[in-house]
Amino acid sequence: MSTRVERTVTVGDNDLTFTVMEPQADGWTATVWLDEDLGRVAGADAYDGFVDRFTATPGVVVTEVEDRDFIHVRSEGLTPEQLLEAVLAAAQVTGT
Question: Could you point out which of 33, 58, 74, 96 has its C-alpha 20 to 30 Å from the C-alpha of 52?
Fold first, then answer.
């Protein structure tokens, strides 16, 4: 898997890592990996509502969830960095 952009954010005493990768399936712009601890650390809504919030991002055309931690994305006009910012916003986490 080829990482395009990645960021680790601190939530409380926990570090969560989010990654936008090269697409892992045909026909997609990118694949997003969510830290599997998101729900435990940031709360159930951060995890359970992620896909709906992320898919509502302007420029995100469609998403497909694979194995809860991987989301395939088709987007228009968004750079990997912009996709990562949308991931962090949808995951309801901030930080550097």
Answer: 96
